[in-house]
Write the structure tokens for this entry.
Amino acid sequence: MAKTADVVVIGGGVVGSAIAYFLSRVKLKVTLIEKGCAAGGTSGKCDGNVAVYDALPGYGCQMNKMSQDMFPAMAEELEDDIEWTRKGSVVLIENEAEMAIAQAHCREMVAYGMPFKIMDRKEVHEDEPNLADDIVGGMEVACDGSLNPMALCNGLIKGARKFGATVFSCTAVTGISLGANGKVEKILTNKDDIATENVVNAAGVWSPEIGEMVGLDIPVKPRQGQLIVGERSLAVAKRKISEFGYIMAKFEKLDYRRNVTPEMEKYGVALVFEPTAALNFLIGSSRQFVGMDTACDLAVLRGMAQRAIRFFPVLKDIKIIRTYAGLRPYTPDHMPIISDTRIPGFYIATGHEGNGIGLSLITGQLITQMICQSAPDISLEPLRFDRFN
Ligand SMILES: Cc1cc2nc3c(=O)[nH]c(=O)nc-3n(C[C@H](O)[C@H](O)[C@H](O)COP(=O)(O)OP(=O)(O)OC[C@H]3O[C@@H](n4cnc5c(N)ncnc54)[C@H](O)[C@@H]3O)c2cc1C
């Protein structure tokens, strides 16, 4: 028997799950299709920061903050515990040269209404006593939070199902049929076909493959990131820590040079430290374009460990229990694509790079507003697909 849906969502990562949740909450008939299992892509191989600290001043930070502010209510709304906490984060400042750049950055963020504050040497060391003695200060971002991304993904899917969504896992989309009028008509899978007038491509780093099915060239590239998991240990840091150089590495600010080894520079190594609810911790990070490769590399991991020990010397005595790598869906301007397209009924929600967990809720909301033709919460201009043409 032919299957039908108002909207088919492709991809069961955090982005597709959030879209399925928001669409089914407004009573649309939604089918979510995932080729593997929920959170089996990048959303299961990442950190869980819901952060503003690593956004750029302007539209970027405002969008991150808007999405972030949706999490307290969502944590209440979902049946599953998503381990949501909001303790703020601290960005470490290594030396006086970095302090001057950080102060200017902080002033700009405050002008956009973000709760950023410079901490002097005394303040930052009182806040995190395990820090290396020579760290000169920090930048506190009071609004930042974190959660368990896999729990978020599964919680959203469970919630979507309660609102009536159908979820097919282990089902791959293999093609998209357009009608004679050029509109989306049918989604082809390796199992059944689904008749629909609307499809959302939320396939993360695989979204270009889905785009090709309708002749669209989506400029998303996989940007690999590796992570180290530490053994359960003392609370090395109370809350999420990163180094100011992380922001530089992410946005490829090549005019600023940190005092790091050539290998660290090459692999885009910069400290991020995330305590988890279980008292393990995650140490990142790296940024490399290595295609779809998700193998960890000892040279990269060594650089990450050295960088972490430079900021927290106590880490040298703590064992690593696991490492993994994920692929961030990168776009050339570091902004996601949340957009309709020239093909009526074909929507794109991808390219969230290192912020997909944090931006998942606003993405679900915006795509729902787009499909329901209601006013968007924020301007959609910077997110449009056609900005790349
Ligand atoms: C090391 C690392 C650390 C990170 N840390 C953070 C962080 O702290 N905070 C944050 O906000 N973000 C972070 N990110 C980024 C975040 O993980 C991603 O932006 C986010 O997971 C992307 O979600 P997604 O749903 O778009 O993609 P995915 O989670 O990859 O989901 C896409 C899904 O589409 C499915 N799919 C593909 N092709 C098909 C097909 N043909 N048919 C059906 N299904 C298909 C895939 O199987 C996959 O499950 C990090 C990323 C990395 C790598």
